[in-house]
Amino acid sequence: MNKNTNSLGLYIACAMLLALSLPVVVALTVLNGTREKQISREMQTLVDEKSESLQHSLVLPVWSLDQAHMRALLQGAMLDSQVVSVEIRDPEEKIIIRQEEPLRRSGNLITRSVPLVMPQQERKLSLGSVQVVMSDAQLQQKLAADKRFQTLVLLAQAVVSLLIIGLLVYRRILAPIGKLTQATERIQHGHFDTRIVLPQHDEIGVLACHMDAMQTSLKALFDEQAAILRNIPAGVLFVRDGRIAFANGAAQTMLGWSTDQLEALPCAQIFQDPLQQAVYVTDKLAREQGAAGEIVLLKRGDGHSFPAELHCAMIDGASPGGQIWVIIDVSERLEAESRIDRLAFYDPVTELPNKTLFLDRLRRGLARQQSQGASIAVFYLEIHRADLSHGLVKADDADHLSKECARRLGACVSVDQTLARLDGEHFALGCEIRSEALADGIRFCEALAHRLTAALAEPQGVAVSFPYSLNIGINILRGQVQSAEEALMQAKLAMVQSLASGRNAFRFFDPAMQALASQRSALEVELREAVAQGQFVVYYQPQVTYEGQVVGAEALVRWMHPSKGMVSPAQFIAVAEQLGLMEEIGHLVLEAICCDLERWQRVGLAQDLVVAVNVSAQEFKVDHFVARFHETIRHHRLHSKAVKVELTESMMIEDVDEVIGKMNDLKSHAVSISLDDFGTGYSSLSYLGRFPIDQIKIDQSFVRQIQTDAATASIIRSIIMLGQSLGLSIIAEGVETEAQRDLLHAQGCTLYQGFWYGRPMPGEQFAALLQTPLPAS
């Protein structure tokens, strides 16, 4: 502070000295110039007077050649101390007489020569001339004395002015600035208690007032930030040059270190793997501003580790050594996600992969097949258990037997093969065939089928001796491009064919089994005609609160075939997707929904009704989907909240960023989004946390078993708790009994859809339902 203040004072002093010195120099220069000109004029006048006086006095003495008289006159002229010399010359410029004082030759010499003329009657007679030389030395001495006096006076005035101005500048500028500088140093060190008050009303006083207000605002801001850091549940670390500079209370609690232990602690010491995590993770996150947090293992003070989500950002881009870390303990979250994933991807009884996980792995295998050219075999297994069919085994033993079957089948499977339980007594097996020869592949599959059949042929040993039988369908995929679902379906067709050969039989898939291909072709033609002619109608299934109030409906498309009558979506949706017709079908459905809503609202119905429309992945991927969706609703003068979009989980895992972008576009138009068939696909906290959804719908496969299967009830409870923790609305589909509804209600589900409230119905019937609310029980 002193250095800066002294520098400013020095600058001001130099400026004042320069400003005051310049007028003094100019004044002295002007005065001296004026005085010198005055002296020059005075000397010229004196020389003129002296020479003219001698001119009149010397005419007669020179005429009469009276040298004594001439000398006397010259001596009289020399009495003037300013006269240096006087001489008289004849007409031929010869000196007649001369008087001179050499010691007077100093200063500026001024010479004047005048003619001596004797006037006569007709002409003037030239007698010669008299020359006078005078010196201004005396006047110059007086001028020098005047200069010294004037200089002293002006310098004294400048010094006095400098002192007065300097005092004013110090008191009004430098001293207040010094106080402001001291105040800023206090603020810099976090001291906000001292008021900044200056008893002056000029610009510096106004600046002091603003600085005082700024200090008050900063104090409030720092207090708020300190309160946030104290109370935020996430741990916050400020890191400078690889060391911890600050840790809030939550961070201290998570890490089990005190403030003194954490501050100045190297960051690497809080990581379970310091070399890998401290260098790679933090640098990666610091480079990727705004990126999702990285899951890392952190180490507590007692040496135990815990998983944490670490977010890292640069405090100041110009100072790369500073970072802010936000640490979130995700131990419970990962455990919950693991439980959800386990419930979603694994069979709860046998702990084998379920159908969802099997199809996912099969898709991956098909992708590798396209690049590597290997063959894949898909087995579809159906177990026939005579004990259960005759009612000889209790339910508890049935689960044990299912586990035993899974164990025996699993013993025949290698680690690079996938055995999955699809449902009930149906299993699937996927494996790669390393040989390129088809004959080798067939022999490999036959040997595996015999081992699987033999594994179940022995009695199970649970108080019964009925042997189990197994029918197997085998589909060998040799590079043909098809979906995982189609490959599994073909294996199932082969299994059905094996039933004709009795128990413990297997059959390879034969393309001839697809005799329905012609029917498929006809269906494709009819579907295109249906889209062109608008043969689709919309049915509505009510969505109801526990009290029986109809608050919404799910719109379900039906195909009114001109000759076959109503065609179920299950018979044409998959084909429509493969034909690329879902965009147009979806638009026809949305138009029908909007027309119905517009008509109902004109007569006072459905003012707050929300209709859910299912959007297929194919339709959702269209670039102009959101714009067309919003324009259709706006065209019918409906509020965007009147139509809700239902999306499935599986369509969200492809092109995640694009899906999130379109979902945000829908949300920007106030369109709500529901996640359909929740729990059957890829649901996880990481996805739910990223997707801007408003509602999750519990799949009917869970609702159907809520009364009979404890694992299913646990899944439903976990789904509801998960949705509630994320602030999402929960709706269950497939509610067919009052008991199911009550169990769902007890778990926290608030909306219901199913046959208990009504089957899908035409718009006219649904409009009538809106006028007659359903009873609460």
TrEMBL record:
Residues 474-533 form a coiled coil. One of its GO terms (cellular component) is membrane. The keyword Transport does not apply. GO terms for biological process: signal transduction. Residues 171-223 form the HAMP domain. Residues 520-774 form the EAL domain. Keywords: Coiled coil, Membrane, Transmembrane, Transmembrane helix. SUPFAM superfamilies: EAL domain-like, HAMP domain-like, Nucleotide cyclase, PYP-like sensor domain (PAS domain). The chain crosses the membrane at residues 6-31, 152-170. Pfam families: EAL, GGDEF, HAMP, PAS_9. Residues 374-511 form the GGDEF domain. PANTHER family: BIOFILM ARCHITECTURE MAINTENANCE PROTEIN MBAA, DIGUANYLATE CYCLASE DGCP. This is Sensor domain-containing diguanylate cyclase. It comes from Herbaspirillum rubrisubalbicans Os34. The lineage of its organism: Bacteria, Pseudomonadati, Pseudomonadota, Betaproteobacteria, Burkholderiales.
